[in-house]
Amino acid sequence: MTWTERRFARNGAVELAHDRLQEGAHGEPLLLVMGLAVSRHWWPEQLCAAFADAGFAVARYDQRDAGESTRLPGNTRGNPFAALAAGRGAAYTAEDLADDAVAVLDALGWESAHLFGHSLGGVVAQRVALRHPDRVRTLTSSAALPSDVGGLGALRHLRLGTLAKFARIKPAQDREGRIAAGLAVARICASPGYPFDETEALERITADVDTGIADPDAQSRQIGAAWHGPSLAELRVPALVLHGTDDPLLKPSAGRATAAAIRDARLVLQPGIGHDIPRERHTEVAAEVRALADRAARVDGRA
User: Which residues form the Peptidase S33 tripeptidyl aminopeptidase-like C-terminal domain (predicted)?
Assistant: First the structure.
């Protein structure tokens, strides 16, 4: 697996770190959107390879307040899930997060792309498809809340016991502590139906260890960014919703609600899957995204 050198896209004053997989570079554009305040390096390499093998040109980026992208000032403090319940944030809006993805598409020279978003990245991807439908070929939302459910309404989909576990992970001040925090997050999110791959998890964590994994201020700014755009029922992009039946953070009701809100969306509930995408499922997930793209192409008359 070979990635291009890191480059930066710009959305106003915000710089967005991104790179692109050199394998499969001539395939159909696929932009990966990662979750809450973690970097692009948290995408499993084997999953990216599976996407390339399925005919996609794969790119990934760090959202603002994550990885090597711009960190925003803000007075948000404390538990990010309290910020989610409050449903408001002063640093930036959810529209800004959606526009960041389009800025990355522009920097890549892609007029449109398939989107795959995981966790908070799934919410962002939904909002990109609502705000910029002409830039999105298909949408895959993985382990995510419905994008138009916020505040206290989102809490009914969350497992409160897992929130307590996250709250006990303290921000670390040194490399060893950051690795330990990242590994703790990976273990909490892991799929109970599959072996936990500590080696693979450490590869992801150490690729991004200096930017930190447990930054509650950045998490709160991201998750508290308010959405003022259309409801999910207005989304008309071909959509796939993936959700683990054993997700320790988000109940399957989140996936069901997301799929129910989007016209003609395909819902795939995955037994034994948690809040991650284990190695054993990479080929199947890539095949689902490939099938979605092929169905969309047939409808549009491109195939």
Answer: 236-283
Measure the CA–CA gap between 167 and 154, rounded to whole angstroms.
Answer: 18
- Please state whether the predicted TM-score (pTM) of the whole model is above 0.85: yes
- Give the chain's domains with CATH numbers: 7-300 (3.40.50.1820)
Q: What is the Cα–Cα distance from 179 to 162, expressed in whole angstroms? A: 20
The encoded tokens of residue 171 equal 């921000």
From first to last of its 303 residues, the chain has per-residue pLDDT tens of 799 999 999 999 999 999 999 998 899 999 999 998 899 999 999 999 999 999 999 999 999 999 999 998 765 555 666 666 665 556 899 999 999 999 999 999 999 999 999 999 999 999 999 999 999 999 999 999 999 987 778 889 999 899 888 878 877 778 888 898 889 999 999 999 999 999 999 998 888 777 656 577 888 888 888 899 999 999 999 999 999 999 999 999 999 999 999 999 999 999 999 999 999 999 999 999 999 999 999 888 654
Give residue for tokens 């948290």.
42
Using CA atoms, how far apart are residues 84 and 249, in angstroms rounded to an integer? 14
**How many angstroms separate the CA atoms of 137 and 290, rounded?**
12
- Phi, psi (rounded to 5 degrees) for 108: -80, -15
Q: What is the identity of the amino acid at 83?
A: A
Dist CA 11 CA 15 (whole Å): 7
- Cα gap 127→182, rounded to integer Å: 27
- Residues 131 and 86: their CA atoms lie apart, in Å, by 23
Structure tokens that stand for 75 in this block: 């007075």
Q: CA–CA separation, 303 vs 291, rounded Å? A: 13
Looking at this protein, which amino acid is placed at residue 98? A
Who's near 161: CB < 8 A, 6+ residues apart? none
Cα–Cα distance between 116 and 9 in angstroms, integer?
19
Reported residue count of the chain is: 303
